[in-house]
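Show me a record, fold above all:
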Amino acid sequence: MGTGRLTTASAWLVLCLGACSDEGSKAKDTAAGSVDTDTTVDAGTATGAGTGTATGTGTATGTGTATGTGTGTGTATGTGTGTGSGTSPIEVLSITVVDHPTMLLQKTLEVSLDAPSAVAAACQADARPEEVHLLESAEVSDAHVLTVQGLAAAEAYTCTVAALASEPALPATVDLLTAPLPGLLPSGVANTRPGSTPAGDYTLYNHQRLCAGEDTIQLVMVDNDGRVRWFYQLPIRGSVDMGTEYVGDGLILWGGVSLSGVNEGAPTYLSLDHEVVYHSSFPEAAERYHHIAEQADDGSIWTLIDIDAYDGARPFTGFGIHQIDPDADALMWEWSVQTAIDRGQLDADGVVDWGGNWAGPMNDGVRDTVVFSLCEGYQIMAIDPASDDIVWSIGGPDSLRLVDAAGDAARPPACQHGLDVDGQRLLVYDNAHFGGGTRMVEYTVDPEAGVATEEWSWTEGWTEFIWGDADYLDGTHVLMTRGHASCFSFGGGRSEIIEIDKTTDEVVWRFTLDDAVDGLYGSDRIDGCDIFASAGTCPAIDARLVELEPILGVTR
């Protein structure tokens, strides 16, 4: 237990999702000695610091003025004035702070009251009072368990707790201290353009030091200042070219882990407290996965698998596409690159080993299609899922005519990694193997006209030979994930996550990892109201904190 202090608070229910951490033995060693297992603070008979008046049927005692009418017994302790008929103060008897052994950025408050009530708690960073996490429990009980997630590492917090039904309010406080981060996590620098508003408040990314010989993978979430708020070490080993995204309701989807064992890298839903909610286990899921696991608008998951493929008598590792129904744990649709090779629709030389590195659904204005990317084939291709035929491509001998906005010939992509779809638009991370700088480029496809139009592109001139991702954000913003692998890249550089406004080409937000050996593949932006319970990142929670200020006495 650590030290704490208690004075006395109240509330309803806000589900607090949060910053959990699982670093295995390294994290346990880091936490040991830094923060004790729990803190218990006994309120005893606390008395208020100011004057208060209590009227009702009972006896009132306190430091200050107390008056009572009628008969009966009761006790009033706290600050301020309480009035009412038949009401009484409710004291916080104790607050126990429970530390998770590996989730270093999560704390649990076990609250004991002297009478049943709903409760609220506000945990405020001592050094940065603008950071406040609000927790509420609507249950009318004399015992409550509140968990705060999304705390910053190596930070001191003061948590104020109060019973909602108490008159007057009697807030109590207890101290929290989070442990330092383990060394397996990267450090980085975040910058927001002055006057700009990023499209999210948190960023989730996958991380690995592959070029340092490490095959462990971490999922990391940072705020817009670059502070780590949540992390998780995958229980498997492989390569960081994989899928990672926040899908809402406190769930993170990860999967498609390249170079992982059979079924190990299958799509998995993980809760923020590190509970596996779903892992693909239907019969056809016993495969090796790579590059992607993404949830579509209909809730299905798209991923890629390794297959044994043949170019005549020559064997090689090809790829297949799986569409998965996670609710039924069933395969909805599948496609094999062998089908396209056998039908003469795809040159096996463009597939190489693995070949595909992204797949997902797209309505091209004519039909529903499934689009996939061939990095070394320098092509983006669309499948008609009804016939399994390839119906159009960008790049390659049968490409749609690729033009710019003026109708002139446009530069084709040269090794594409992560893609995103919005209607008939494709946002592409183009590694640009043939020069011109790795870029993010947007196409609008018109299969009826046989044209794909380059609408926008953006580059800073650097080149990354492998890895990378592109994502649409709200409005005109897009997200570019620069996956730097120091042992494969040309020249220097660092892994970066860059948010860009397409209308101005300005960088709205940039997060750069400090060490060249820190690699990443993809990232995802998250709105502050969709995760955690921080008043600083969610206006609705901030408004509720203002409502509770007379009870908790906490302001930002």
